[in-house]
Every structure is written in C-alpha cells, then in structure tokens.
Amino acid sequence: MGEIVVGRRSVERVSNPRDAEAALTWELERVGSTAWQDWTLKFQRMAFGYAHDSGWHDSADALKWLDHHALLHEGAMPRGALVWYQAAADRIRVACSLGSGQVIGPLPTGEVGVVLLTDLSTDFVWSDPHFPFAD
C-alpha cells in the first residue's frame, strides 16, 4: 500500500483485515453490550479485524504514538475514522465515526452505543484506522 513519510520517519501502511464498512457493521451488531466497558482500543482493533494485541498499552499510548508520527487530524471526521477524545478525569477513549458527528464504541457509561461526539467531548482528534503493530 505504500508508506507515509513523516520527517525522517516512515510508517508502513497496510490494509486492515476489515474495511471501514465491515468494521462499522461489526460494531453496530454489538450496540447495547456491556462486555467492552473500558476496552475502547481493543473494541476498535477487533472491529477492524485484528485478533491480537495492538502493541499499545491503552488509548492514551496509541494517541501519543499517532501524534508522534503526525497521523492525527482536527476537524470533521470522515465515516470509518477513529476518533480519539478526552472523557472525564482526563481519560483518553477511542470510538469510530459513523459520519454526521456520530460515533460508535464503548461509551463511558459502560455499554456500546451510538452518540453524537459532542455529547461525549469537545476535545477530540481523529486518525485513519491504523494499527501498525496489530496482527
């Protein structure tokens, strides 16, 4: 697929096992589940088809890595993008964009749901669904 060149670093780009639409379908099938509480990164990784660990400790670790590699964006997020937001108590969480300002993922209340991002946070960035260490 090529690579993204960031300064002197390069980040290899690979296709995810599931494309964005398949990942969103997987997520929508789990709306209402409380099995994913506090596992927002694992939920997104599995939605995009990765069964094994992402190589990041948690969402905050992933966000730092993406920021270090200049892979984060501000503004309107496209459908299928990962949306990184700050929840209560400075906790970083990740959801997936459905478009029109809506996101899906394990919510701070515990269940998987669909909500307007602005109901969760006004402090967010987004990235392409990129899991460079997952397999």
Written account of the structure:
The longest helix has 10 residues, at 59-68. This protein has 135 residues and is of the alpha+beta class. It has one domain (3-127): endopeptidase fold (from Nostoc punctiforme), CATH 3.90.1720. It has helices spanning 20-28, 40-47, 59-68, 117-120, and strands at residues 3-6, 9-12, 82-87, 91-99, 102-106, 112-116, 124-127. The strands form two sheets. A five-stranded antiparallel beta sheet has the order 6-5-4-3-7. Strands 1-2 form a two-stranded antiparallel sheet. β1 (3-6) and β2 (9-12) form a beta hairpin. The protein contains four helices and seven strands. It is globular. This is SUKH-3 immunity protein of toxin-antitoxin system. It comes from Kribbella orskensis.
